[in-house]
Amino acid sequence: MSIEAIAEAFFKAIEQGDVDTLNRLYADDAGVWHNFDGITQTKAEGVQTLAQFAAVADSRYELQQRYVVGDTVIQRHNIHIRMKATGASKVIPVAVFLKFRDGKVAHIYEYLDSAHVVAEAFEGVADMSAA
After folding, report:
1. What pTM did the predictor assign?
2. What pLDDT score was predicted for residue 114?
3. Given its phi and psi angles, is residue 128 left (phi above 0), alpha (psi -120 to 50 degrees) or beta?
């Protein structure tokens, strides 16, 4: 199976909340780094985070671009999220680098565009630039 096919299976497993497939696709020593907190999660932490997320939200990946460069898949996508309890939805632009080793996801570098989170945090706050 090509690394592009493995990447496709990986994102489908996230959408479906398929923890068994995620565990199978990750290397045992995999790391998952996020730009929003600078922390690298272990395989177990990454899978647990995705399982917890799938319990409260439905997600769908809308592929924008994907490139395979050597042992790395570089992908830009929008993740469409709908909260199960409220139906609230959000679209988050993401760029991700998946580095492979021996047919497994060995490391992920994930860059989420959090600009909308900042905008929502300040929504309704008076324009401070006029002061």
Report:
1. 0.84
2. 76
3. alpha
Predicted pLDDT of residue 115: 73
CB 54 within 8 A of CB 39: no
In one letter, which amino acid is 103?
G
Q: Which of 31, 34, 25, 35 has the alpha carbon at shortest distance from 43?
A: 31
What is the fold, at CATH topology level, of the domain defined by 3-125? Nuclear Transport Factor 2; Chain: A, (3.10.450)
What was the pLDDT predicted at 113?
A: 84
Instruction: Write phi, then psi, for 72 (nearest 5 degrees).
Output: -130, 135
Per-residue model confidence as pLDDT tens digits over 21-56: 999 999 999 999 999 889 999 999 999 999 999 999
Q: Where in the chain are the domains? A: 3-125
- Across all residues in the chain, what is the average pLDDT? 91
Which residues, listed in sequence order, are joined to residue 101 by a DSSP beta bridge?
104
C-alpha distances in Å from residue 92, one per residue of 70, 79, 112: 27, 5, 7
Whose tokens are 């994907």? That residue is 66
Helix (H) or strand (E) holding 79: strand 72-83
- Per DSSP, 130 falls in state G
